[in-house]
Design goal:
Radius of gyration: 13 Å
Helix content: 55-70%
Number of helices: 5
Largest sheet: none
Number of domains: 1
Order of helices and strands: HHHHH
Length: 82
């Protein structure tokens, strides 16, 4: 049995590598991604599918946010140490 629930992306409890991806994202990023995911997956998606997207498709996430890759997103957001 599949159970889908309405949930804001920022409230989703990611696990594994997906939580590392989400740590690099802002609240604004999550809002933008929620809009993209609503369009890309009009029937919704399961929790594992959502988590796997953020875990294994981080470059796709970055492209949706306007970057060429996730490493570009990370480099741009890197805070100088001095």
């Amino acid at each position: 049995m599949k159970i889908y629930e309405d949930l804001n992306l920022r409230d989703f409890q990611f696990w594994g590598g997906a939580s590392d991806t989400v740590e690099q994202l802002t609240e604004e990023d999550l809002e933008n991604l929620e809009n993209v995911l609503t369009e890309e997956y009009p029937d919704g998606m399961g929790k594992t599918e959502l988590n796997d997207l953020f875990w294994f498709e981080e470059d796709t996430i970055a492209v949706w946010l306007g970057y060429s890759s996730f490493s570009e997103l990370e480099e741009e957001r890197e805070i100088p140490l001095f």
